[in-house]
From TrEMBL:
This is UDP-N-acetylglucosamine 2-epimerase (Non-hydrolysing). It holds the Pfam family Epimerase_2. Keywords: Isomerase. It comes from Neolewinella antarctica. It is an enzyme of class 5 (isomerase).
């Protein structure tokens, strides 16, 4: 049984399911697979569109949890997931990433004495204020098989006392998805992406988006968008300074749109002549925009990784990252700037001068999902009869 809940999970499960299918076609022990969607993300643009475009089969079970406070979301997911596990009685439950679905379902899986495999184990930001850090810590503590994207993550686990035999360095599964979809994304025209995804209430804007001339931005972390002063300072820099250098394309997360409205910034952003607001966009559209971007400004974990492989110079709007391998000091494309405008300003101008320089860390090679299936089969052989 594998579990997804929110947008960043979908690009991690797609190649896993394909690898399970490849394995089954090749013969050997057959893996029966059930896909559960907790429904944490439910808008078409946050969920269904990814199933369609990445070829993920419709979930066998949708718990339809939706939005809510942490307690409501975590608790309701646990309540709804328990009978599903009892009914399907899987040997292994595969959870991915660090969203609320990952935490709730790994807790219930262990309560019901199931084996848990965690894809993207061992990431640590060191910031316990982040909901995702709590999700990562608990999930890793409970997991029987910890599948890591890089050697830094494996070392975190060893340092925390996880036995070596539970840790398996498999590489970054997001890069499987990137490699599988590069060619498709390259076919998209930026003008079409803009026409199809532009926010409706936005006035027509004459912004030219030739490759290597625009900035691409995403922002949704509570630490950046939930505090009016921080959000206002970031927006002032964007609207008054950054856009003088490059126009900015910005697909808006629903949380961010809501907070811009609450902070009284919405109208100004919506009418800014150098900011192009898009609805949340699909995987291929984002990949295409990233390939063409001169600079990325983001607080997303996945985009930091994709910038690394695509070579897009990136400002990470966070004070820490659970993905240090993406940082320039580790050979990656990004630099941490937090949400301090002084620091963002300095790094923004410096970063604009940087060339596009793709790098691929070890095992970020598009073959991670096959290594994961092999690792789960090997672990299952030693723990249960398959
Ligand atoms: C979640 C993940 C975060 C991930 C992000 C990517 C956790 C703790 N956080 O944060 O790690 O980077 O997804 O998007 O799991 N909303 C909609 N439509 C939807 C889903 C959400 O409008 O389909 C709105 C709701 O107002 C909701 C808000 O977005 O309250 C936040 O959604 P939520 O699932 O609580 O967390 P994210 O901020 O999306």
């Amino acid at each position: 049984m594998s579990v997804v809940g929110a947008r960043p999970n979908f690009m991690k499960i797609a190649p896993f399911i394909q690898a399970v299918n490849r394995h089954n076609k090749a013969g050997g022990e057959h893996i029966d697979h059930v896909l559960v969607h907790t429904g944490q993300h439910y808008d078409d643009r946050m969920s269904a569109s990814f199933f369609d475009s990445l070829g993920i089969p419709a979930p066998d079970v949708n718990l339809e949890i939706g939005s809510g406070s942490h307690g409501v979301q975590l608790g309701q997911t646990m309540m709804a997931f328990e009978p599903v596990v009892v009914e399907h009685d899987p040997d292994w439950i595969v959870v991915v990433g660090d969203v609320n679905a990952t935490l709730s379902c790994s807790v219930i899986a262990k309560r019901l004495k199931k084996k848990v495999a965690h894809i993207e184990a061992g990431l640590r930001s060191g910031d316990i204020e982040m909901p995702e850090e709590i999700n990562r810590l608990v999930t890793d503590r409970l997991s029987d098989l910890l599948l890591t994207p890089d050697r830094i993550a494996s070392k975190h686990l060893t340092d925390e006392g996880v036995p070596e035999e539970k840790i398996c360095f498999v590489g970054n599964i997001m890069i499987d998805t990137l490699e599988n979809n590069r060619a498709e994304a390259a076919k998209l025209l930026i003008s079409e992406i803009v026409a199809e995804n532009s926010i409706k209430e936005q006035p027509r804007k004459e912004i030219s988006l030739a490759d290597n001339t625009y900035g691409l931005m995403t922002m949704h972390r509570p630490s950046n968008v939930d505090h009016k002063e921080i959000l206002t300072a970031l927006m002032r820099f964007l609207m008054d300074e950054a856009t003088q250098e490059v126009p900015i394309v910005w697909p808006l997360h629903p949380r961010t749109r809501k907070q811009l409205q609450t902070a009284g910034l919405w109208e100004e952003v919506l009418h800014h002549p150098r900011i192009l607001l898009l609805e949340p966009i699909g995987y291929h559209a984002m990949l295409r925009l990233n390939v063409g971007a001169k600079i990325m400004l983001t607080d997303s974990g996945g985009l930091q990784e994709e910038c690394c492989v695509l070579g897009t110079p990136c400002l990470t709007l966070r004070w820490n990252t659970e993905r240090p391998i993406t940082l320039r000091e580790h050979g990656g494309a990004s630099v941490l700037v937090g949400n301090d405008v002084e620091r963002i300003r300095t790094e923004f101008y410096a970063t604009l001068k940087l060339p596009n320089q793709p790098v691929s860390p070890e095992y970020w090679d598009g073959k991670t999902a096959d290594r994961i299936v092999a690792a789960i089969i090997a672990a299952a052989r030693t723990t249960t009869s398959v």
